[in-house]
Amino acid sequence: MQNSGRRKELGLFLRARRDQAVRVDYGLPPIARKRERGLRREEVAFLSGVSVTWYTWLEQGRDISPSRQVLEAVSRALHLSDTGLDYVLSLGGYASAGPSTTAAATAPAHLKRLLDALDPNPSFALFPDWGVAGWNNAYAALFPNIATVPAADRNLLWLVFTDPYVRDLLPDWEVTSKRFLAEFRAETGQRLGDVDVKNLVERLKEASPEFREGWDRYDILGFESRERLFHHPAVGVLQLEHHQLSPSDRPDLHLVVYTPAPGSDAGTQMASLIAAAT
Known about the structure:
Layout: H1 3-20, H2 41-48, H3 52-60, H4 68-77, H5 82-91, H6 109-117, E1 123-126, E2 132-135, H7 137-142, H8 156-162, H9 164-169, H10 173-188, H11 195-207, H12 209-215, E3 226-232, E4 236-245, E5 254-260, H13 266-277
Antiparallel strand pairs: 1-2, 1-5, 3-4, 4-5
């Protein structure tokens, strides 16, 4: 992502966080018309210990070089999480953008064998732009469309926001889709200017009103392993735990693995699905 693009993204992100700040959390009274959310630029500048002009330039995406200390101070003033701080620092050039998107179309053979070995746990691999690089039989049984969707659309974020089957598969779609979007933004901050990521975002803005609204909120979240629910038409609700890891020899890829939640029947349900699919 070019410096100008990073500066613009940083400014938009800071503005969004400033507008969403809860004033009572700062011991400040509501502003005009009883608005309880939103800080003035002057207030953020004061809390950060920087000049109003300097902070204004940050939000405007001006060609300036804020120090790490300034970005940390602004992040603290806006009560950002650790993920938010990392995001701000990465846009300011103080953190690695991570591996660039690979040009390969699929995961290497040894990772495909690893995915197969993880059966009957639904598992798949993601590229940095969340393109699906490979999957195992269990994941194909959970989401049969993965094998037939056009390669250009075989992207987790695209599928979550545009595929009717996925929406029906997720009983908590509204919550899960927002979380995925926030995780995607956190992971791809410095890559938002990359052609593949930029095209994906623009396509999703056109295809999904929910994505367009969520994208403009500038929410970010770091990944956390958690329980997920899937409502499969053949076996009912599956309770699975969502895990993510990266191979040491391919840190550009993320492996996503769903294991049965403790005390659930998900293992038996998945075995039934796989048997029916083969």
